[in-house]
Write a sequence for this structure.
């Protein structure tokens, strides 16, 4: 049976999806560096919120249902979504593949150069895809989220099933620290230079998924509304302080996916969402949009690159809104197609 929707979580799903769009559209990047960094790093609560939300609802489903069936169903749906969008990005070549796959010049293939070039690009994308990219990083720069979530859900379920829950927090914290050592802290003498991006895998995701799983327990006390807001605000402030202190003293790059303060941001925003209730039409509309946050997250890279190719170019301050709205409309329409609902919401 479908669980009752929580207004605050739907609302913050919409806000988080828009925040992810802001991260990838880089507003103010070439205009004001301080504003750009503040927006980019301030938006980093979004993915932790998605992880915590996933862990929360997974934990709730485990409480009153057949646990094995819940696990198989949950992982099956995640795999379905991940495989669909992976195939979508593999079969529709676009510019983000230049980060992973070598570009192909369609103009050199004669009369039907565009078609031949696209077919060769598809073959090149598939041919250059490694198992490591599929299992850990994803075939497009944002699809790493799904392997990370799947791995963490599996770890949480195994521990839950075998009464090993007491080991989850220390393991999750240890992995988070390792992730920082290979990420934002890699410039320190004790940092680690991994050959892969620690953003992928369960280095960071496990702590947030565990937090959601833990908060789903009926015996777990939640923060008061005011406390939740303070934790979120404190996390945002400490995040920006961390950005400029690490940059000024140690030369750490301003743009990082995770920092120590990201934990406060993620937990604070999720607890705030649980307490939030709708009191305005705008909030109600955003909560409805939040139901399509999964599809918006998945399709926005494709929409962004279509809009970027438009002439005349879309102004930087409009770009995030344009990408978000077009992505939302696409997902709302696609969700009406049979069997497509699961990949949209």
């Amino acid at each position: 049976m479908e669980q009752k929707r929580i207004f605050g979580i739907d609302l913050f799903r919409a806000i988080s999806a828009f925040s992810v769009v802001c991260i990838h559209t880089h507003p103010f990047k070439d205009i004001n560096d301080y504003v750009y960094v503040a927006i980019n790093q301030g938006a980093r609560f979004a993915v932790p919120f998605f992880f915590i939300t996933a862990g929360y609802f997974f934990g709730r489903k485990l409480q009153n249902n057949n646990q094995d069936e819940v696990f198989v169903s949950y992982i099956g749906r995640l795999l379905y979504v991940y495989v669909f969008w992976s195939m979508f990005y593999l079969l529709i070549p676009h510019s983000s593949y230049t980060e992973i796959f070598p570009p192909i010049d369609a103009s050199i293939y004669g009369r039907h150069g565009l078609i031949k070039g696209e077919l060769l690009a598809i073959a090149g994308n598939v041919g250059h895809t490694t198992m490591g990219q599929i299992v850990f990083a994803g075939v497009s720069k944002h699809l790493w989220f799904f392997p990370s979530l799947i791995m963490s859900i599996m770890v949480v379920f195994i521990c839950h099933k075998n009464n090993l829950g007491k080991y989850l927090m220390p393991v999750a914290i240890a992995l988070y620290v390792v992730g920082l050592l290979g990420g934002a802290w890699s410039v320190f003498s004790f940092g680690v230079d991994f050959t892969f991006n620690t953003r992928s895998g369960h280095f960071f995701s496990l702590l947030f998924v565990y937090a959601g799983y833990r908060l789903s327990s009926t015996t777990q006390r939640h923060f008061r509304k005011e406390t939740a807001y303070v934790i979120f605000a404190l996390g945002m402030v400490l995040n920006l302080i961390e950005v400029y202190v690490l940059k000024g003293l140690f030369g750490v790059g301003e743009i990082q996916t995770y920092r120590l303060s990201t934990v406060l941001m993620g937990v604070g925003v999720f607890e705030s969402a649980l307490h939030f209730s709708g009191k305005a039409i705008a909030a109600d509309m955003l909560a409805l949009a939040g139901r399509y946050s999964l599809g918006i997250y998945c399709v926005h890279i494709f929409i962004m690159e279509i809009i970027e190719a438009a002439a005349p170019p879309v102004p930087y301050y409009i770009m995030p809104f344009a990408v978000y709205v077009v992505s939302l409309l696409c997902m709302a329409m696609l969700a009406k197609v049979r069997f497509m609902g699961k990949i949209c919401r």
